Amino acid sequence: MQATSHLALINLFVGDIQGGLGTWLAQAAQWSPSQVGLVTTLVGLATLALSGPLGALVDRVGRPRLLIAAACGAILAGTLLLMGARSFPAVLAAQFVAALGGTLVVPAVTALTLGIVGKQAFPRQQGRNQAWNHVGILGAALVIGFGTPHVGPVVAFWVLGLLAAGAIVAALMTPKTSWNARRAVGWKEDDPDDRPERSAILRVLADRRLLLLSAALALFNLSNGSMLSLLGQKLVAAGQDGTGWTARYVMVAQLVMIPVALLAGSLADRRGRRQLLLVACAVLPVRALLSAFLDDPAWLILAQVLDGVASGVIGVAVPVVVADLTWGSGRTQTALGTVAAVQGIGGALSGWVGGLLAIHLGWTWAFVALALPAAAALGLALWLEESCAPGGRDGAGAPCSTAEPPAPALGQETGREPAFSR
User: Which of 60, 211, 217, 310 is 20 to 30 A (C-alpha) from 146?
Assistant: First the structure.
């Protein structure tokens, strides 16, 4: 089996093992929404704070296969601990362990992908990774949705546990020689005696383009994070089946994300990364306006199609742009984790902001107001320079992407660790 097939399996299995188990706490453990919300908030804040350091850990250790297995093991352990937990401290600890693994798995998978296919083939492979990721999310949602009425909410544990175990096996079975540590960070693969120093963290994170990207993503998530929840609440207030329609909307969005991710990976070189970001930021205000002025649940599916477009593109474009901006620094996963943390802050604030807007402005104007940070994100994306222009050339005119991964030199030791992990 090719190494890229292992990447497909890993992304398929990790698709839905990073989610929380709030529904199980509410149904089986009889927890109130406020208790579930408090645990979710505390765990979310802790993992946001650790996102950057965990990315730095991936850069430092340089063993993504083992880190993926460890991350999935933490998710599995947290899930098992939660099954028997009832007290607040026990549930908080179990959720934190699982969330810690979910935060670590993202930069670890990115590092594994870069070390296998290289920077030049990364955009297309990231599109495939995200497509398989969404297939996994959709499949798990279907199994849990159909299994819960027959087995009960405990079916979520079985699904998450099996997915985590599958991801561990897929990661450990990935051929060790297919991954090149120097390829993963942008150092010369044919010169193992060359030992570049990693760039200073603050110098990498202070890059104006990275700051602009982070700010745009925070605004994107501030707008996007609460829309689906508010839409479900709007339908309930109108006497509709909010829960049923929300489940359908999630599935529609995931179905759309699969071809969108593949297309985005293909277009990243031909159209440039910046254009992808512009598309994602441009459709989000339209989604907000559709959510504001459409009342028929069936017609609101159009808004979720746009959600699939925006989120599908972002999932591919962001890691690719971060890799462009940090290539050769030895800090790519540190930067990716830090960007994800800033992006997550916007998402964390979105639920609170969206709730306040709905209370004080009503449903229609709440969605209109949520279109504003999306429009601001579009403005920042317009201000952001292209990190890899159409045709696969960077600002210096050097190739930054091609369709095929680089071939290792004859006799090359592809499993070699980076100098900074020795």
Answer: 310
Q: Are 267 and 276 in contact (CB under 8 A)?
A: yes
Q: What's the rounded Cα separation, in Å, for the pair 294 and 231?
A: 10
- What pLDDT is recorded for position 419? 40
Question: 312: which residues sit within 8 A by CB, 6+ positions away?
Answer: 130, 134, 256, 257, 258, 260, 261, 264
3-state secondary structure of 393: strand
Return d(Cα 300, Cα 258) in angstroms, integer.
Answer: 20
End-to-end, the C-alpha distance of the chain in Å comes to 30
Report the predicted TM-score, pTM, of the whole model to 2 decimal places. Answer: 0.86
What confidence tens digit (pLDDT) does each residue in 78-113 have? 888 877 777 778 888 888 888 899 899 999 999 999
Residue 85, Ramachandran bin (φ over 0: left; ψ between -120 and 50: alpha; else beta): beta
Q: Say if CB 323 and CB 114 are below 8 A apart.
A: yes
- Determine contact, residues 310/10, Cβ cutoff 8 Å: no
